[in-house]
Amino acid sequence: MAEVWGYNGSTPGPTAIAHDGERVRFVVQNDLPEPTTVHFHGAHAPNEADGVPGVSQLKPIPPGGSYVYEFTPGHAGTFAYHSHTNSATQELKGLDGFFIVLPRREAARDRVDRDYAFVLQSWFFQGDGQPVVVFPPGGDFNFHTMNGKTRDAASEMRVRVGEKIRVRFYNASQLVHSMHQHGFDLTIESQNGHERVDRPVVTTVDEGPGNFHEVVFTPDKPGRWLVHCHFPHHTSNAMQEGPEGSPVGMARVFDVVAR
Ligand SMILES: [Cu+2]
Q1: pLDDT at 131 over 90
Q2: Rounded Cα distance, 234 and 204, in Å
Q3: Third-level CATH fold of 114-257
Q4: How many angstroms separate the alpha carbon of residue 182 from the centre of ligand 1?
Q5: 16-105 CATH
Q6: 142-to-35, 81, 85, 161, 206 alpha-carbon distances in Å
């Protein structure tokens, strides 16, 4: 465990979910020791809710202060919220989370049985209970998580053969992550909040910083199937593998059981 910053006590913060056309209100109370703002990445917020200090929000929220962001998102899709103040520190200390705007009516082909959302994060871990380092020595982040947890600290995802599974990725780190699913091909439904009408089928999704994808797959065979970042350093915990050399870090397991 490391000391990080978060929203409502966690990193990533709670997943905010709205429906297309709904007005949303985010009440931000700043309990950090420094000013902050919140930006709604990809959601087409108006300028007064854009959250860039000195640019669209002239005065950031001071420590102990609060601010209300209220707007109607411009479209449906998978988006994020994150700090836009002192970003090199605040974003890399964990101030991020999903903001998902669901369509009012989901087309039949978009319905799924399971829907998972993962924030990809990279940290420099210097020891149990220590604060994470936002500018690591040599620039090499040594700890990589999905929703704030490494594989060995996270539960597996139990799904059934034949179920349609959606996975949403958001890369909140400053590295690229190459997300690879074992056992099944991934169909890209959307990228950065916009439908991929060509529905490309891939084994691996390259997720650049600040990028999103929604992918779907339907497992046709049981087993315990890894999904992981394909940068080998990113499936270790500070260069330590798990038992038997198993992947840890930025990885999860789908436990696919028979129907
Ligand atoms: Cu990676």
Answers
A1: no
A2: 15
A3: Immunoglobulin-like (2.60.40)
A4: 16
A5: 2.60.40.420
A6: 28, 24, 24, 35, 19
pLDDT digits (tens, 9 = 90+) for 45-89: 999 999 999 999 989 999 999 999 999 999 999 999 999 999 999
Beta carbons within 10 angstroms of residue 146's beta carbon: 25
Distance 42 CA to ligand 1 centre (A): 22
> Over 90: is that where the pLDDT of 254 sits?
yes
Alpha carbon of 49 to ligand 1 centroid (Å): 31
From ligand 1's centre to the CA of 158, what distance in Å? 24
Distance between Cα 185 and ligand 1 center (Å): 19
**How remote is the CA of residue 180 from the centroid of ligand 1, in Å?**
10
If you measure from the C-alpha of residue 85 to the centroid of ligand 1, how many angstroms do you get, rounded to a whole number?
25
Query: Alpha-carbon torsion 1, 169, 185, 238, what sign?
Result: negative
- Surrounding ion ligand 1 within 5 Å at CB are 177, 229, 231, 234
Give 234 Cα–ligand 1 centroid separation in angstroms: 5
pLDDT digits (tens, 9 = 90+) for 204-234: 999 999 999 999 999 999 999 999 999 999 9
Every domain of the chain and the residues it spans: 16-105, 114-257
Q: Do domains 16-105 and 114-257 have the same CATH topology?
A: yes
Please provide the average confidence, as pLDDT, over all residues in the chain.
95
Q: Which of 255, 186, 195 is nearest to 218 (CA)?
A: 186
CA of 155 to the centre of ligand 1 (A): 20
Determine the Cα–Cα distance for residues 183 and 186; give it in Å rounded to an integer: 10
Measured from the Cβ of residue 120, the count of other Cβ atoms closer than 10 Å reads 25
